[in-house]
């Protein structure tokens, strides 16, 4: 992942996240974080927003996942607390810190506060986009394996949450991408249903 030369703090943050998330379950691992950073950047180029706030929030949005996996703590809140401690120590601008932590706290649409800033909306959109399309299918069934639940529970998750995500997007760019990814998931589910009927 390229480091933005305008942001000298970024290299240290990336290495911190890479190390801390090395043992996290594959459905929410460092590769997921990298994809969210990339999606944030793609959306920001179309919609605007402060790139420094967005990159800091995106890199750190899931840094609390290890705590959640260990003890059930809310990873968004833990991630915001870690960001509040880490970013000042690596030279991140203090006047932008509050917007970073708000975006992190708001990225989890099911339990977090409503995103109030453009950067928070973009981060939530990017995180939700990574739950859609071919990648979303892969991550969903990764999570099924991680939790030891059934394939049926994974299919239920498509209908209960994943297929509804496009209507929750905040930005026009994310809505367009989400609808495209949703169509791939619907096609997958149609084929899965046909093959499911083959069982005795």
UniProtKB/TrEMBL annotation:
Range of residues in the leader sequence: none
InterPro entries on file: HD/PDEase_dom, HD_domain, HDIG_dom
Keyword annotations: Hydrolase
The organism's place on the tree of life at top rank: Archaea
SUPFAM superfamilies associated with the record: HD-domain/PDEase-like
One term of GO molecular function: hydrolase activity
Domain HD: 29-132
PROSITE patterns: HD (PS51831)
Pfam families: HD (PF01966)
PANTHER family with a match to the protein in the record: HD_PDEASE DOMAIN-CONTAINING PROTEIN, SUPERFAMILY HYDROLASE, PUTATIVE (AFU_ORTHOLOGUE AFUA_1G03035)-RELATED
NCBIfam families on file: HDIG (TIGR00277)
Name listed for the protein in its UniProt record: Predicted HD superfamily hydrolase
Organism: Methanopyrus kandleri (strain AV19 / DSM 6324 / JCM 9639 / NBRC 100938)
């Amino acid at each position: 992942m390229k480091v933005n030369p305008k942001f000298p703090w970024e290299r240290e943050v990336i290495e911190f996240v890479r190390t801390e998330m090395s043992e996290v379950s594959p459905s929410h691992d460092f590769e997921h974080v990298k994809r969210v950073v990339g999606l944030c950047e793609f959306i920001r180029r179309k919609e605007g927003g402060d790139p420094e706030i967005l990159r800091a929030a995106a890199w750190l949005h899931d840094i609390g996942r290890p705590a959640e996996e260990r003890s059930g703590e809310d990873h968004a809140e833990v991630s915001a607390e870690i960001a509040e401690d880490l970013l000042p120590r690596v030279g991140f601008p203090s006047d932008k810190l509050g917007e970073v932590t708000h975006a992190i706290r708001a990225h989890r649409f099911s339990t977090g506060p409503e995103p109030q800033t453009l950067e928070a909306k973009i981060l939530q959109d990017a995180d939700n986009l990574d739950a859609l399309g071919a990648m979303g299918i892969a991550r969903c069934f990764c999570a099924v394996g991680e939790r030891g639940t059934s394939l049926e529970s994974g299919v239920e998750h498509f209908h209960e949450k994943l297929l509804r995500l496009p209507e929750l997007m905040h930005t026009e760019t994310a809505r367009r991408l989400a609808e495209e990814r949703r169509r791939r998931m619907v096609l997958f589910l149609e084929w899965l249903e046909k093959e499911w009927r083959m069982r005795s």
